[in-house]
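All the exercises in this workshop are built on plain-text protein records. A learned vocabulary of local backbone shapes supplies the integers on the structure line. Once this layout is familiar, the rest of the handout is easier to follow. An example says more than a description, so a record of this kind follows:
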Amino acid sequence: MKISWIGHSCFLLETDKGIKIVTDPYESGSYSGAVGYSPVNIQADIVTVSHYHADHGHTKEFKTAQIVDREGSVKVKDIEIKGLMSYHDDKKGDLRGKIIIFVIKAEGLKIVHFGDLGTQDVDADELKDIDIALIPVGGTFTLDAEEAIEVLDKINPKITIPMHFKTPKLGFGIDGVDVFLTGQDYEKKDILEVNSQNINSFKKIVVLNHQR
């Protein structure tokens, strides 16, 4: 599987069979230009949406993709996806609403995309044996670095890829990834090419360069 970070919370997961899964596509230029990443512009088969804020749920360009945006289990093109309801804040959604955490099973890998997770209260039993965790670390609107590490300690994924942090293309007032990486052993890549055989050959934290 090839995993590319498009930008913000948007990733492209591409299987060996060529199936393309896009997570949380953003609207380029939204929030008065604060989302400065270029348009996603990918012909996807499956699109997961954790919630419909403009920086996570811009699905208009995905005319032929199957949109997965709710709790429960679904199977699309041999990809198993389970949506788990959670919250955008630590007040059970009273501040920013609900979000969906997605657990994606494909090609022998189990990947969790945490969306705009804002609470450390996650169901560890539903998140067992995770191979790759895609988790927000920027704080303010989501978990911050310390909170993300606490969640990761509960589920102990083989690889963590941080997302939803400050970059030169993102104008939100959130932390950069350096706060999360302080004292951590990590590596940087443009694209992570991973399978069930080589997954233990990578660092526990892989920081991807945004592709847009």
